[in-house]
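User: tokens in, sequence out, please.
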């Protein structure tokens, strides 16, 4: 199926929902503006309009409920005032109020319908870019196919990296909460960002403090969670003592810190944010650090992990990467997505990712923040679903990292967590669990045909595949990648079926 293709059925589904919504709103307006008010009919029409809106989303349903309630109240007031006679000014104000509410309804419905069509496109892109046709062939020891074998295909891990920062690791007031935090993390994520802020790891010159990060990295390796060190260079986290050095001495201190961090975690860190906010070239103490120079210093320390630059301006990062071609090797771009001022639209998400993809490097969505306080947790959940679907659908995106699992310890003290301060899951956590562990994971079963085959469309990743025929049973591990083999043979040992 071509990239971005939306099937006729999906388009028709969205169009029909839109038609039903507008028809329901029109019916409500007719009832609400009748000269003789029928409160029962108005209430039924309101329920029908809200139900139709819910076909698009809970957000539109809530907005529709507010609008129809306001309209119904407004008309009741006009009817009451009618016996006294309305001034032209009052009539004009009421007319403008209705017009404004109708226009808002129309705009919101149009936006929701556009988002629905985009989401249908993204679902198609996910099928195109994140899945492949996987064939399992069950054979006898002599190579002949085994028909009617029971085959189970269970995904053990994703190739795509779904991550979160691990900054609250072992920071809770009790062992129970520390254990619960680790469980909440492990149940969703296969990647973690650990802190390497220079102002924390070397508050005093020559006295490194890596123990908290050491513990976090050890836990990640034990749980088979990939690790990113963040960041090696960021002007906002330079120790105060660096400011007192001369330029030459400061450069030597920067190189020493970089080398020390890379050598310490050479075998345990999979990705490095070499520079945070690299444009314009950052000032670190008295030194203006060229990004290419920082990459060369990092490479000199011989890291085994991949090297990234991280920032919030996708176009500037892509331009920097293009200018650095032919210089020290850069393995990808980290694009921040902090949304403290409100969730991005699907169009904004796609435009940002397309801008970063212009460098023709893997894109790591490195810091995702969408707020969800007590009053707007449902809206956060819906925004999370939209953001992750749009990003996962983009062929250049290699990872998505949420920023702060819990509201406790969250950046800026914002309600940015997927779980609350007491570690209870918000709706956003539940939504993400459903996407990552159910909708975007392949667990399939079937029986082999006469040719011994079972075929399935499967997400890229690691699999455990089991075939059984009678009492004969065999299990193999298999990796389904973007390239390479997409067919696996399972040979059943001789024996009675």
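Assistant: Sequence out:
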């Amino acid at each position: 199926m071509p990239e971005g293709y939306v099937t006729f059925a999906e388009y028709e589904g969205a169009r029909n929902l839109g038609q039903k919504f507008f028809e329901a709103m029109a019916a409500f307006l007719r009832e609400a503006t009748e000269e003789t008010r029928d409160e029962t009919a108005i209430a039924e029409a309101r329920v029908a309009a809200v139900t139709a809106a819910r076909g698009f989303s809970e957000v539109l349903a809530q907005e529709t409920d507010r609008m129809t309630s306001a309209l119904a109240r407004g008309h009741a007031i006009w009817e009451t005032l009618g016996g006294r006679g309305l001034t032209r000014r009052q009539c004009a104000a009421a007319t403008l109020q209705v017009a404004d509410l109708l226009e808002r309804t129309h705009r919101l419905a149009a936006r929701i319908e556009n988002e629905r069509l985009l989401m249908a496109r993204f679902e198609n892109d996910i099928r195109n870019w994140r899945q492949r046709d996987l064939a399992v062939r069950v054979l006898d020891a002599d190579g002949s196919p085994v028909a009617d074998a029971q085959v189970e295909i269970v995904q053990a891990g994703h190739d795509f990296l779904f991550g979160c920062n691990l900054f609250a690791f072992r920071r809770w007031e009790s062992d129970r909460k520390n254990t619960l935090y680790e469980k909440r993390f492990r149940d969703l994520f296969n990647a973690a960002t650990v802190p390497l802020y220079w102002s924390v790891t070397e508050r005093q010159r020559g006295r490194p403090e890596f123990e908290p990060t050491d513990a976090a990295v050890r836990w990640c390796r034990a749980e088979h969670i990939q690790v990113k060190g963040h960041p090696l260079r960021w002007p906002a986290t330079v120790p105060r003592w660096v400011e007192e050095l001369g330029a030459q001495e400061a450069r030597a201190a920067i190189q020493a810190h970089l080398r020390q961090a890379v050598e310490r975690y050479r075998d345990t860190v999979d990705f490095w944010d070499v520079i945070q906010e690299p444009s314009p070239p950052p000032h670190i103490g008295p030194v203006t650090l060229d990004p290419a120079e920082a990459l060369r210093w990092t490479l000199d320390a011989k890291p085994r992990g991949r090297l990234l630059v991280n920032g919030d301006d996708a176009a500037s990062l892509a331009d920097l990467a293009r200018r650095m071609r032919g210089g020290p090797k850069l393995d990808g771009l980290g694009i921040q997505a902090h949304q403290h001022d409100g969730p991005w639209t699907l169009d904004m998400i796609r435009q940002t990712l397309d801008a970063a993809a212009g460098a023709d490097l893997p894109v790591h969505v490195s810091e995702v923040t969408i707020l969800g306080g007590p009053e707007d947790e449902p809206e956060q959940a819906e925004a999370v679903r939209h953001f992750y679907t749009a990003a996962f659908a983009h062929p250049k995106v290699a990872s998505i990292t949420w920023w702060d699992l819990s509201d406790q310890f969250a950046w800026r003290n914002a309600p940015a967590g997927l779980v609350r301060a007491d570690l209870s899951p918000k709706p956003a956590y539940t939504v993400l669990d459903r996407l990552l562990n159910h909708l975007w994971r392949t667990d399939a079963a079937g029986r082999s045909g006469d040719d011994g085959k079972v075929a399935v469309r499967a997400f890229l990743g690691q699999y455990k595949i089991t075939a059984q025929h009678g009492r004969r049973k065999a299990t193999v591990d298999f990796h389904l990648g973007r390239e390479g083999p997409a067919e696996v043979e399972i040979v059943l040992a001789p024996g009675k079926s």
